[in-house]
Amino acid sequence: MTSSDLWDEDTAEGYDDISAERFAPRVLDPAVDFLARLAGSGPALEFAIGTGRVAIPLAARGIPVTGIELSQPMADRLRRKVPAERLPVVIGDMATTTVPGQFSLVYVVWNSIGNLRTQDEQVQCFRNAARHLSPGGRFVIELEVPAVRRFPPGQSAVPFEVTDRHVGFDTYDMVTQQATSHHYRRLDDGSVRYGYCNFRYIWPAECDLMARLAGLVLEQRVADWAGAPFTSDSESHVSVWRKPLDAAAQG
């Protein structure tokens, strides 16, 4: 069992459309460039591969990519774009599901590690990444820094987008680190559709401790895929942990 929300057929069907900005070259290309540099000749493994937004262009660079995805409907959308022999996907959760072989790169993007809503599962995710890495391989995550600095006393919600088409805000429980992203989208017919997803937020220092428990060492932390310096004002981070060359086999 996993604590993650399971994305259903309706959510999967509209995912690429509502995430269109994330497919834009100015957003996607720096991520693919960053991951390709770390992967070298590969192979690479993506946790929560979704519909293949990152994996497909990474594979187009000649890097063999495998994916793990919890939602069968999301994986079905990916399969419409690329055949299994070019980009295999295993259905399962990223905390415990394994695939054959070792990888030079394991990665999880766009806050997806937060879909695991318990600390134990998130720790297991780091260990699962380490289990799949060859010595010297890297585990990469892209993750928001929790926006709790923006809370005045008594407030529990922070907006992240307010436009005429979409209003999105996160609500946080700062005792349990549980949070929910709320989305109100205006459709072409003028109606409004509500959707939400639950997540557990993680601080960068907490990520580092999880990595240490998995036998990984922090190699790099930047604010974004373009490599901007990570500072106390950064709202996101891309972090890279390395499996030591002399690491014992992960069990």
TrEMBL record:
Write down the superkingdom of origin.
Bacteria
**Record key words, sorted:** Methyltransferase, Transferase
A GO molecular function annotation here is: methyltransferase activity
Q: Which InterPro entries does its entry note? A: Methyltransf_25, SAM-dependent_MTases_sf
List, in alphabetical order, the GO biological process terms annotated in this UniProt record.
Answer: methylation
Annotated Methyltransferase domain residues: 45-137
Pfam families, per database record: Methyltransf_25
Q: What is this protein called?
A: Methyltransferase domain-containing protein
Which organism does this sequence originate in?
Answer: Micromonospora narathiwatensis
